Amino acid sequence: MCLALAPPTGPTRRLRWGGGGGGAGLRDSAAAKTAEPELDAAAAATATATCAAVIKTGKLDPHYPKVCGHRGNVLDVKWNPFNDFEIASCSEDATIKIWDIPKQLLTKNLTAFRKELVGHARKVGLVEWHPTAANILFSSGYDYKVMVWNLDSKESVIMSPVKTISCHQDVILSMSFNTNGSLLATACKDRKIRVLDPRAGTILQEANYKGHRANKVLFLGNLKKLLSTGTSRWNNRQMALWDQDDLSVPVTEVDLDGSSGVLFPFYDADTNMLYVVGKGDRNIHYYEISANKPHLNYLTEYHSYNPQKGIGVMPKRGLDVSSCEIFRFYKLITTKSLIEPVSMIVPRRSESYQEDIYPPTASAQPSLTAQEWLSGMNKEPVLMSLRPGAEPLSPQPLPSERTLSVPTAPTSPHLFNQTERLVAEDGRRPFSLLEEKAPRWSAEYRQEEKKTWLSDGFDIFECPPPKTENELLQMFYRQQDEIRRLRELVTQREVQAKQLELEIRNLRMSSPRL
């Protein structure tokens, strides 16, 4: 196993590893990159791992301490979403190992694993942590089986899973959970997408559509939709959007290009943004997902000069909110033996916390124990605010859809049109700034006050001053609308006054002189 562990660096810092054996020998399935707020890791198709400090950027020594334990090539690595110092790895040696990474990082080679999971008959290609239950791990192997593991067991070597799902007819290429972990979607080499009950192991939905060959599948938050990437019948790279309750035909299909690299989709449920990264490509496409047609709204793309062999993302709680960073990628560039962070930033002038782009997101606290989930309970993730110093919130449903109608930008962003977004978000009428027509103590004033000084519950006398740049902009645009309305009203009154003047003049001209 080859892992490069480092704390998250800034958007322009890079990590380079030395030696000639790590880069050229990377396999397709193992050229992966994962990250946690404390550490990040790149997995290569070797039997060792390299670990480095986060602040230690630049070239790493080829003899830097490694994680050594698997007897075959490592095919997948995943961080525990509830423990920033725990990794699950799977290998061609048909085992899964759980590693505890020391908080002070490695000073010598790490060979002692915490747990070993033995159950697959052939090599293990994928591992996936449950999104809400602690210590529940899923694995899939080349024996066409998905296994569910309970890591609460006291044994260091677990020989049997709590559940084995044997409904697939070929190698499983991708796994994805919905928000609360009650559904599992898989993409298989037999060209079928399946939605499973992960506890019962039964098939709830199965796609037999022949026009799309899926390689990756992804649940789109609480939108009750699936997104798959793969190839069309004409061998073009393609994305397909599916209704999770009806997989007979896709809701929509989008052909991209004729390249051969596998497409990796990443979805941000907080902003409804979809990022599509192609293996061997030099760009990252991003889309906005909406519940209404055309569903997939193309925004723009990030372009670089170096092709990526693999890519991973940083969890939302590890982002730099002071720079309005909403997503961070880690590109594995094997041609230069390089791991390069790429930050997606919404440019704002103010450095204050921007609540409109940082809704409550999943925290590092599980909402269920392993036994509770196995007994049939389902809970939404425990949410937290990304505001510095905020505490996790109680478990509650995530918002079904949140629209971010402005494109995101990489480290060198373009200026966004904030006016359209704010006007679209704020559906209230502008408040009225009319003159007083009666003393404040009179009954006429109190009756007219209800009609004049309040608009949609907005009291301009008791309104607190805006605290953020976003509130100030909303106030500004509402005042602009009110000024425009008042100007139109003044113009109408001027026209009426001129008409009355003409009528008076006509009456004077037509009346006989005395």
From TrEMBL:
Region annotation (Disordered) ranges: 1-21, 388-414
Keywords assigned by UniProt, alphabetized: Repeat, WD repeat
UniProt cross-references to PROSITE patterns, sorted A to Z: WD_REPEATS_1 (PS00678), WD_REPEATS_2 (PS50082), WD_REPEATS_REGION (PS50294)
Superkingdom of origin organism: Eukaryota
One GO molecular-function entry: actin filament binding
The WD repeat ranges on this chain: 67-101, 117-159, 165-206
Polar residues bias: start-end ranges: 402-414
PANTHER family, per database record: CORONIN (PTHR10856), CORONIN-2A (PTHR10856:SF2)
Family: Belongs to the WD repeat coronin family.
Name of the protein described by the UniProt record: Coronin
Source organism: Capra hircus (Goat)
